[in-house]
Amino acid sequence: xxxxxxxxxxxxxxxxxxxxxxxxxxxxxxxxxxxxxxxxxxxxxxxxxxxxxxxxxxxxxxxxxxxxxxxxxxxxxxxxxxxxxxxxxxxxxxxxxxxxxxxxxxxxxxx
Length: 111
Fold this sequence. Notes:
Blueprint lengths: L8 H9 L4 H9 L3 E2 H7 L5 H13 L3 E6 L5 E6 L1 H4 L2 H16 L1 H6 L1
Antiparallel strand pairs: 1-3, 2-3
């Protein structure tokens, strides 16, 4: 992913995390290293093609690490890079904001 120096930092963050699945993939990897099939089982509704695409994009952005083991059948594991780990407080804050928002929905609708 190449970003111009004039890009807004928030825009860069959103471009890396954007889409339906990337944050959910990260949520699973915050729990620990996982293999492709484990991720596919844990992310209900994602196709193998979409999971592959999202993992490649996160790897290209250096947010996750793809470890290939030379064995038959091939074994591939995904884990967070240090850069990926640094997203945890950001995603935790987003989680808390979302919970707060949902708790205050009835008040927002009456306003």
